[in-house]
Amino acid sequence: MTLTSFGPANRIKRSAETHPLTWRLRDDGEAVWLDEYQAKNGYAAARKAFADMAQDDIVQTVKDSGLKGRGGAGFPTGVKWGLMPKDESINIRYLLCNADEMEPNTWKDRMLMEQLPHLLIEGMLISARALKTYRGYIFLRGEYTTAAKHLNRAVEEAKAAGLLGKNILGSGFDFELFVHTGAGRYICGEETALINSLEGRRANPRSKPPFPAAVGVWGKPTCVNNVETLCNVPAIIADGVDWYKSLAREGSEDMGTKLMGFSGKVKNPGLWELPFGVTGRELFEDYAGGMRDGYKLKCWQPGGAGTGFLLPEHLDAQMYAGGIAKVGTRMGTGLAMAVDDSVNMVSLLRNMEEFFARESCGFCTPCRDGLPWSVKLLRAIENGEGQAGDIETLLGLVGFLGPGKTFCAHAPGAVEPLGSAIKYFRPEFEAGIAPTRAVVPPLAKPIVVGA
Q: What distance lies between CA 25 and its chain's CA centroid?
């Protein structure tokens, strides 16, 4: 995995003014520990928040910045924070960092946690101050062993420096932070399934309402934010709303920068911090370098396996939620995947749907039964054994498992790429339908009842 913030056609040096998430990164890819982080202005935003800002002012600043969730849903962060109860008598509240990152083709949070663990801790510290939460958990994907090691070390460094624990920065505010490794389930990326798992329960999503802000982990008010979301908070507090909004390109309705990437058979696969509003073509050509020699771009996904496929002509769409929605899908995590012209779409979709079917929690019928049904049909079509009507059945499943039809968003995300693949590449699916036999052959021997 590589991390650069400039492409071969546009070499711009990372700086605090233009790259709030990545300017502190080391060129050798090693982690930035406490001394170096503080030398690079680390925890200055936390000190400002504790010394100069009321808790409600922090919430309002984040709301005014236009920061939205970076985990894929894109819900306004300040609005989410505003849902936490104002009642001062509720003295037990929790802040959870969703670091599960099980979305295929997504590794942005991993980079932040492995190389800039203190940026996440500072973001959580400021957020905890704003939300009056006394304890926080980083719910980490179990496979991220290096991230777990680095985060635990960074937590200990922050404790020793008086930046976590009791009476932080002499403010009288207490905040404990723990790293909790999960057992490796995709569904834990859904915030209420994450809460159930943290409590030691089966990772099923919960019915909403009540929302976590009212009844969350262990029945207490809880706020759940993504890693990248929380890592944006220090820069917003340090440098202000107007500066943060100015980072996005003209035309973008999303503010700030975003970690974006491209994988697949491109010349320069990687991850870059870019302003919202860059086009998919800039990301693909200037940063990822286009396709490798001998390969042609067939289609691409803009933000993880749960987003719909787009064609090469859609590369001119701006990379922000509304810009990608204009061409028929979602921004998702912002890490794109290029599909080359050697890939059979039926095989690709069968592989994807097998993953999503396996990762379903099984709580609701459409998801539990519908996703394995799609796998069965796709496998038959892949083997040339599909039957007339199978494609229509698949499209029916796309509708039955769509938004609002299931208990959580797992199934709608699972079938979105399926629907788009059939839309753009239907002949590849039709090629797997076996010819219909005009005459059913007679039985070899007559059946005589009672013989």
A: 21
User: In this predicted structure, what is the pLDDT of residue 90?
Assistant: 76
Residues in the chain predicted with pLDDT less than 70, given as ranges, are 1-12, 436-451
d(CA 276, CA 254): 6
pLDDT confidence of residue 71: 85
Q: What is the pTM of this model?
A: 0.91
Is there a contact between 433 and 387 (Cβ–Cβ < 8 Å)? yes
Cα–Cα distances in Å, from 365 out to 115, 332, 373, 393, 429? 41, 25, 12, 17, 26
CATH 1.20.1440.230 is the classification of domain 345-430: yes
Domain boundaries along the sequence of the chain: 34-245, 247-340, 345-430
pLDDT for 440? 42
Long-range contacts of 34-42 (CB under 8 A, 24+ apart): 34/118, 34/154, 34/157, 34/158, 34/161, 37/116, 37/118, 37/119, 41/16, 41/238, 42/118, 42/119, 42/122
Q: For 283-332, what is each residue's pLDDT tens digit?
A: 999 999 999 999 999 999 999 999 999 999 999 999 999 999 999 999 99
* Residue written as token pair 């070499």: 11
What does the pLDDT read at residue 436? 61
Cα three-residue angle 232-235-238, rounded to 5 degrees = 150
The Cα–Cα gap between 300 and 260 comes to 14
Top-tier CATH class for 34-245? alpha beta
Which of 374, 369, 290, 372 minimizes the C-alpha distance to 336? 290
Domain 247-340 adopts which CATH fold? Ubiquitin-like (UB roll) (3.10.20)
For the chain, counts of helices (H) and of strands (E):
16, 8
